[in-house]
Design a protein that fits this description.
This is ATP synthase subunit b. With 252 residues, the chain is an alpha+beta fold. The protein is built from five helices and four strands.
Length: 252
């Protein structure tokens, strides 16, 4: 068989041209597309891995923040509970103190009220006792209650103990006048009797000032330079009250 070399050569050329064309216009773009797609897939896989790492990191950070929040929440709850307890205890203590203060004020007010009532009753009883004593002395003798008071006071001056006389004498060295106060107005004779008794006792001459002081309850007192000598029904009442108090405490 005779070979047609022209046809063979033409076929070879056609094949080479076809191969070139395929490589130029088909194979290269396909390979480029495949490389590009492979690169995109790799990039997507890298992005997915990166996102996975970021997600894991975000999850760890969330868990850490959640644990921190829970811890801080527990601490805040404990702190709030402690502060609430402290404030509650403080309020209770304030309420207890206010209640005690109110109780003390009420007790003090009650005591003062009782003292006022007792004082008023004592004053009324003193007045009634004095009226009875004055009437009794007037009925039984010609000596008035005031006159009898002066006599008792003069007797007390004369019966002063040595140490009292010394105190009285020391008080007179200042040169101040002797103040004589009485619950009633002293007559000239009564004033003279007091001056004479004091001068005779202390062997001194002094100036005297006489004043009336009703609250002494039928009593007389001598004051000079800080020294005081007195006698009154009040003294007996105070002594009686002290004796009564001691007796009550003993019984209790």
């Amino acid at each position: 068989m005779k070979i047609d070399w022209f046809t063979v050569i033409a076929q070879i050329i056609n094949f080479l041209v076809l191969m070139w064309l395929l490589k130029r216009f088909l194979y290269k773009p396909i390979l480029s597309s495949i490389d590009e797609r492979e690169t995109n897939i790799k990039n997507q896989l890298l992005d997915a891995e990166s996102q996975k790492k970021e997600a894991a990191q975000a999850k760890d950070e969330f868990n850490y923040k959640n644990e921190t929040f829970n811890k801080e929440k527990d601490e805040l709850m404990q702190k709030a509970a402690a502060e609430a307890k402290t404030e509650g205890d403080k309020l209770k203590e304030n309420a207890r103190n206010e209640a005690n203060e109110l109780k003390d004020r009420l007790e003090k007010a009650f005591t003062e009220d009782q003292a006022t009532k007792n004082n008023n009753m004592a004053k009324r009883l003193k007045g009634e006792v004095l009226d009875i004593a004055r009437k009794t002395l007037t009925d039984l003798s010609s000596v008035s209650l005031e006159g009898q008071t002066v006599e008792v006071f003069l007797k007390r001056i004369n019966e002063l103990k040595a140490n009292e006389k010394t105190k009285f004498s020391e008080a007179l060295k200042g040169g101040k006048p002797i103040l004589v106060q009485s619950a009633f107005t002293l007559s000239a004779n009564q004033q003279g009797s007091i001056q004479k008794t004091v001068s005779g006792l202390l062997k001194t001459e002094n100036t005297y000032e006489f004043k009336t002081r009703p609250e002494l309850i039928n009593g007389i007192e001598i004051l000079t330079n800080g020294y005081k000598l007195s006698w009154s029904v009040t003294d007996y009442l105070k002594s009686f009250e002290a004796d009564e108090k001691v007796d009550i405490e003993t019984k209790e």
